[in-house]
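Action item from last week, closing it out:
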Amino acid sequence: MEYDAIIIGGGPGGYATAIRLGQNGKKALLIEENKIGGECLNYGCIPSKAIIELADSIQYLKEMPGVDISVKLDLKKWQEWKWGMINKLTSGVEKLVRSYGGDIVKGHAFIMDKNTVKVGEELYTASNLVIATGSVPTRIKMMDSSLFNREILDIDHIPKSLIIIGGGYIGIELGTAFRKLGAEVTIIEMMPSILPGTDPDLTRFVDRRLSSLGIEVKVSTRVEKVEKREGYEVTLADGSVLKSEIVLLTVGREPNTKGIGLENLGINMDGKFVKTDNRKKTNIPGVYAVGDVSGQPLLAHKAFYDAKVAADNISGIDSIIDYRAMPFVIYSDPEIAITGEKTPKFGNFPLAANGRALGMNAPQGIYRVYTDENDHVRGGAFVLPRASELISEISIAIEAGLTADDIGMTIHPHPTLSEGVQESSEVLHGRALHYKSSR
């Protein structure tokens, strides 16, 4: 059968491309070596947020004044529930792809040429090819015995001690969750601060929370090697040795481009990434790349967005990427959510002035809205519970060309965390109701 497009990789970028092509009336073949849903649904976004939700729920009651509870956690039963939930999601995705006329083949895909892909002994042909092979954890020599996100999210017990190498978003998210579930946690980061690249004015709230939870953070610290003995031994650059039941390595991810036959295309690369233009096209006519494999940021929702752009262009609909309101979320405690761009003009509203936050016993954080000289919203940064659910209000404002005054004049329900978005916009005009800025 001749397909309109063959898609290699069944993660967010791949399955979304197949669905979007089907919605456009095109016939797609989706090839996945492991599980439909890829890293995100099976081993990353979904299971990590599930364990964070579990940990947050337990910690919330433990810290609420007047509450005295003890919790017995059967992680084996929780893992059964988790995989049941994930399997519902992945089977739902498979049904959606097929409902739009797409076919799915399980196996390792190898590119023969720009129109031909081999899986096992079978050859498949198409007018277009989409590379959506995602990314894999960065591995470091002398640390290969460490666990990665797949393994740590599948364990059947809470370790007594956990060392995390890497203080980026994955390390901070999982370290916080496992500490709340009872593990003694140490986070080691070679840079001078955790969450490198994130505004220190935002990360300071997370720093405080890590300290209050009793998580030991070692910054400006380099790990030389990890050895697995009865437990694990982590040797630092200064010669000292730390011991732990489990070691988790979270030092980044890199594109998954090996062993798929890219060399048969003569495709242009951007470092380790497949180079694409603003229509997700590569230098080879009819060959596209979407998601992690096509460059930063390595986010599932970026892959969803890329997929629509690629599918539209394959379908003859001219579409170009526009990442100006690309949200980025760190599921720390409190959550950090950022979208758009920073500008010199912004309004800050403290979380401590929000009634709903106080009722949640969570007063540490901030709302921030950035505007240009004409009051148009250009970006936002929130550090607060459920920041991930609120940041889209700012993304919509950016896309719609709204002003801070537009947000300030929009009625928000009371009491809610969303009121802080309104009030941070009003701060810019000195009209916040529950806070008087000194600016």
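Closing note: The domain at 2-136+254-314 is CATH 3.50.50.60 (FAD/NAD(P)-binding domain).
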